[in-house]
Design goal:
By secondary structure, the chain is an alpha+beta fold. Helices cover 36% and strands 31% of the residues. The radius of gyration is 17 Å and the shape is elongated.
Length: 107
């Protein structure tokens, strides 16, 4: 009977787990957010990037809705399920700007 070592199990879970923040993913997100101001971006993961958090500021209701729709279309193609998240925060009274926060990967 063959035993599975802990390191082998860890490697298998790592290889099958999550997703990579790779060039294809970044190109899709860039196309969806090309005209936005990036407030903050964080990519982390060792030895391969597997977590991305970004926030953007945008003006106008319609523009915000269109941008969120574009982002959702791109992350839905990744099949991340609950590992993908988009949150919209209104700013100002009356609302004149929005902050869009995007998170890919579970932490």
């Amino acid at each position: 009977m063959s035993e599975i070592r802990g390191s082998d199990l860890l490697r298998t879970k790592w290889e099958k787990g999550g997703f990579l923040v790779n060039e294809d993913l970044l190109k899709k997100l860039i196309s969806a957010t090309a005209d936005l101001v990036i407030d903050d971006i964080l990519v982390k993961g060792q030895p391969k990037p597997d977590f991305l958090h970004a926030s953007f500021t945008i003006d106008g209701d319609e523009r915000c809705g269109t941008t969120v729709r574009k982002i959702l279309q791109q992350i839905n193609k990744l099949g991340l399920g609950r590992a993908g998240r988009v949150v919209v925060f209104p700013k100002g009274v009356p609302v004149d700007k929005y902050t869009i926060e995007l998170q890919l990967g579970g932490h």
